[in-house]
Amino acid sequence: GERETNHFVRIFEYFPQAKEMFLEIANENKHQLTGKFMLEQFKEKILPTLERDSRDKGCFNDGTKPQKMLMKMLTKTPSEASVVKWMRQLNIEWDQYTTMRGRGSYLSQRMAEAWAAGKYANRRPKGQGLKKGQTQDPDIVEDDMQALDNEEINIADLM
Fold it and tell me: Closest Cα to residue 93, out of 154, 26, 145?
């Protein structure tokens, strides 16, 4: 994990125009912005531009750190997960429904909010728990019992 983050900072530090392009592409494509899309754009637009510029300046693959990093990325493109990290680090807003699920995604943020808002709010203060054997929602339990009875009947029918 740690390496990829620095990895990101460096490619955009070494090549400010890469960062500009990345942000520009992201802004123009908000409606279809995913890690996958940005990875494709990075491969097809940003990397070739960096290579072309470097060749024009006569410094392509000259052994300097920026060029070494560029060579590395040209031979092995970053993963979609890395690109998503970059998007986060650049604070790019995107339609989170189309992005990776999991921690930090729109869904888990919503869950966290719901949890904070409601889940704990309904907890009873200490010492005021339900009496043993008393159920919170009799209706639900009734339905379950009903369902069990029906199932038993069905099984009997099958015999």
Answer: 26
